[in-house]
Amino acid sequence: MSSNCLNNFTSTIACHLRTGSSSRSTDSSSRKNLGKQLLDRMALSFFTLTTEKLHRAPSPMKRFPCSPGSRIQILPYLSSTASRAPTSHTGPREPIRKKRIMNAPTARSSSVAVAAVDPMENLLDSIDRSLWHVDARLRTSYPGDRGTRQPVHTCYIPADTYHPGIPGEWGREATEVLDSFAGTADALASIINAPLELASEVLPLVRAKLAREPIEDLRLDFEDGFGSRSDDAENAAVEEASASLKAAIEEGEAPTFFGIRFKSFEEPTRRRGIQTFARFVGLMVTDGRLPEGFTVTLPKVTAVEQVEAMVAVCEHLENSGGLSRGALRFEIQVETPQSILSSDGTAAVARMIAVASGRCSGLHYGAYDYSAACGIAAEHQSMAHPVADHAKAVMQVAAAGTGVRLSDGASIIFPVGSDDEIRFGLRHHAQLVERSLHRGYYQGWDMHPAQLVTRYAVTFAFYRRSFAAAARRIAAYTGGPGAGASTDEPATARALAWFIIRGLQCGALSESEVEGATGLSGETLDSIAFERTNLH
To answer: Is the pTM of this model over 0.85?
Structure first.
């Protein structure tokens, strides 16, 4: 309660008591005028005090939509209250007049001119105050995509088989498969089910990619691909693999993205997994920094608390290793039903993203473990099974707007064996890659060198097939030369720009092609794709 308001109110009462003691000698007219003045002063003091008290009320919905001490905002309340005032032995009371209240002095000021307050502005201010915490939560929880490059695949190999020459070996083996089974536009078109003209554009791009950057993202596996071994054997593998990876980085032979997958935080493997994680990170740190592109994968997550534990481990390793806060980020591998739906019926994967506190960089779907846990027979386990589609749809909604990226799983039907078996394996993989791209999963796992052929061929065809239409629409949206009227909304324009940027990042499109077709530079496309809306 304001001391000024309280003093004003008590002085009014005191004045009333003093006046009452000497009013016997006052005539009837004077008493009537005095009564009116007293009523005005008491009403003003009371409502000034009340508005300050209500303004400090904890719930925004209980506040008056005005600032403390405002007189104008209480006029409707004064008028309606005064008009219903009961009568006394001195006769009926005169309703309180707006003019009197507006011109009446207050304890704070003797000015008789008070500016009118716009009710709509007060309403808008009140709503802003009531939603500010919601706005802050949305900005934190849904920051949008970072705009950095996302690899089109992740290749997994047992950690103890890694050496710096792995990417080159995979590239050469994939090129041999390309030459033997998809070395012409006709053959490639048959494998990836694309028009001949499109296959002709894609073929040289695939060949160049396999020579330049056959593996974009490589994960050294200490989990299923490594198996259960003695502590000494796993520790030795950590030492050797980390040394080989550091040598590859120094020699410029490491992929753009790389890291490790360690054992899960389930009770039987938890301690071993954390030890491997900690040892490998410690060996990779140089001058208080981790190499650019380094990440780790947390597999077989079955509880939100395991993600919280992962955050605690990351914080400990950062503190003990002299790393900057947030230097360690991780992917969550979604390969158990419990990571999609908790026992209480909530979407566990959404909560996992939230408790990761910005450290979760991706959600990777594990097709075979998840399908098996759902009771799907081995012959029918696939990234295209309905249970897989359900899980990936939940992942997609949970990650939308958070900046967490998605990756589909793997196919273990490798292009190996007879010529017919190799062709079947290539076509099968091509169909799965295209299916993922159509559903907004722009990354997947590759487990065999021959799968690089269809990974790049299908991915490049996906972007090139839709590039011309996307370029026309984004040019029309930005009012480019020769562009017609655009009917696309800002959200669609952002998606179009992001689509073209992804094509540039993976090598499906060239900068000259993009600028020639859209009239836009890469920076302009970035500004459209990552323009922050009110939600972000």
So the answer is: no
